Each structure stands twice: as structure tokens, then as C-alpha cells.
Amino acid sequence: MEKDYNTERPDLIIKEYGRNVQKMVNYALGIDDRARRTRLAYIIVSVMEQLNPTPNPNDEYYLKLWNHLNIISGYKMDIDFPYEVLTEDVHSKKPERIPYNDNHIKYRFYGRNMEKALRDIADMEDSDEKQALLIHTANQLKIKYIVWNKDIISDEQIAAHILHMTEGKILLPSDIELVSANEILKQVKAEEAELQAKANLKKRKPVKKSVAPKKRKTSTDRRR
User: In this model, does residue 96 exceed pLDDT 80?
Assistant: First the structure.
């Protein structure tokens, strides 16, 4: 008797329906009569529904089953489909590639929004408002750098980064003193310690206090 090994069988096209469904589809393809072939296709789809049931079957669910039937047949199932199924050309067509944003971020730890803010400041006319915005943004850059890198950065380095991000349009005045790097580090560490303490507190389970059972009064106690 010749043994039938899975390794020698054709690959399953859709594994979730098993080999028997694939055999039934292949049998249906060999039927010459279109009406009979269509009736058998409905039976196969009902079997597929039993193998992969859903709590709320709808048109989308049944469309998927008929599409799977067509795929298993290699798109050769010539029947009266109750739904408009996908053809091989449409199914195998690759979706159009979505273009990636080609805007290059010069410093990832600052982010795109900070670079945009600096470019907007560079386009402003000289004024006290522009100077105030520049100082505020420079301080934000310093905070972002330290939070990201957990390291100290000098005001001169911040000025160099601003000059680079604005393509030489903004030079931070040398007499401007930004927020202290050490103070930022202290604040960051304090916030991290606070978050860790809250996390540890959540992990602790409340200890239930044991209550001693009340002593029953005896007849002697009642007489007293």
C-alpha cells in the first residue's frame, strides 16, 4: 500500500481551511456542468463557514469566504458568484508605495517642531518679541538635549546648533545666559525619582490587619 505523506502533497493555498476543502475545490473545477459546479461551490463555502465561524456573519464575512474559494481554485472557479470577487490581477497588484517625508532632521533630540520654530523666528523682523522667543526656544533646546542625552551641554554648543539649524540666519548673542544645565539635570533626576516612587507604591499590596475575634460574654459576666 502506497503511503500518503504530507511532505509529498501539494502545498495548502489557505491553511486555515485544511486539505479537504482544497480537494473539494479541485473536484469542483473538474465538473463540466456550470450549474452543478455552482451548487457545489455553495456547499464548499458552507463548510468553510463551519471551519472558521464568526459570531456576527455579514456581507463582508461572506465576501471573504467567496474570495478565499476563488483564491484556492487559483482564480479558475467559473461559477455564478453571489458577490463580486477579486480577480488574480487585482489581488496580486501591489499597493502604491507611500513616499516618506524627505525632510532631514538635523538633531533628532530636538525634533522637527523645534527646527520649524527656529526657522519661523529667523524669518521675523528684529524686535523685542523675536529676542524673547529666541531665548525661550534656546532654553527649550537645552532642556530637550539634557533630557534626551542625560548629559550637560554648554550655551556655546546650543548657539552652534541654532546656527546650524537656521543655516546661519540666527546667531545667539554671547551675553545671553540660558538656564543652568546642572539645575535641569537635578530637575530631571527628581522627576524620575518621583515616577519610580509612584511605580513602587503601586506594586506594594496593602497589608490586611488581622482583627481579633470578639470574646463572647459568659453567664458569669452577664450577672456582673
Answer: no
